[in-house]
Amino acid sequence: MIVYTHNDCLLKFNGQGHPERRERLESIISSIKSSDFTVEFKDGPLVDLDIVSLVHPKKYIENIFNNIPKNGIIGVEKEPYADTMLCPNSKSAILRSCGSGIAACDDLMKKNERVFCAVRPPGHHAETNRANGFCFINNIAVAARYLQKKYNIDKVAIIDFDVHHGNGTQEIFYKDKSVAYGSSHEFPLFPGTGAENETGEGNIFNATLKAGTKSKEFHEIFEKKILIPVEKFKPDVILISAGFDAHKRDPLANINLESSDFFTITKKIVEIAYVHSKGRVVSFLEGGYDLQALSESIIEHLRGLKTHI
Hints:
The longest helix is centred in the first third of the chain and has 22 residues, at about 90-110. This protein starts with a strand and ends with a helix. The strands form 2 sheets. It has an 8-stranded parallel beta sheet with strand order 2-1-5-10-9-6-7-8, with helices on both faces. It has one domain: Histone deacetylase domain (Arginase, Chain A, 3-Layer(aba) Sandwich). The protein has helices spanning about 10, 20-35, 50, 60-65, 90-110, 140-150, 165-175, 215-235, 260-275, 290-305, and strands at about 1-5, 40-45, 75, 85, 115, 155-160, 180-185, 205-210, 235-240, 280-285. Helix 5 runs parallel beside helix 6, helix 8 packs parallel to helix 9 and helix 9 (about 260-275) packs parallel to helix 10. The relative contact order is 0.15. It is α/β, with parallel strands linked by helices.
């Protein structure tokens, strides 16, 4: 098991009291290091903008970087909704978060290594030309396009169990039958997308969850509306947007999963990967804003990723 991360991802600062803070990543890394897992930590490289441009126009990325302040922080959205922040250390964190996914794909394809990317900022809200929801580059979408271009991967499935819908990932692949996107998320909730009638070209699978949903009901919905359609898609590689904010402790949502549920979710995804994808899975950190829940859930997630059949 390989874990990609980088100290630069700790340096991005979003302001006092912001939920997407460095302590999230610190708690995850500390929890992994104190576990009994054999894990190889690797530094995430800076991604090349030519790779980013497989998804995002270079002008979009350049505009983001041109707006990075020399001091303090600024929001990229209009007030009063500015919560996607830029600080002087943003550029390297953004590029290493995406670069970690690219390096992870190389390890996956060349060494058959399963990988988790412990990075921030997250990515699944970033649309082709719009940063939002704490996200600037859609890390998992760039990884999918990279796999298709460099390794001639035909079909990629992206499974997203973050409690917030990945509006960016859906927007990017909405008309692309070569990529399946399956998302379970509380609805209604930010960002407001992800209704079940949003199906793209038959490649988009949205599973909406009512506030208060508990483990048993969640697993039934996830199996029926995400796992079964993805299995029918028969992906060559599976990528995971791993958000842990559907946990009962999370302050930004109202779904009541236990830490152990993330083992069950992940194990089922890996089982599908063994049937259709040669066991090939890469996972990307997305949301999750309670430190205890993160510390516990990441161990369950990695335990699921280490599943062998």
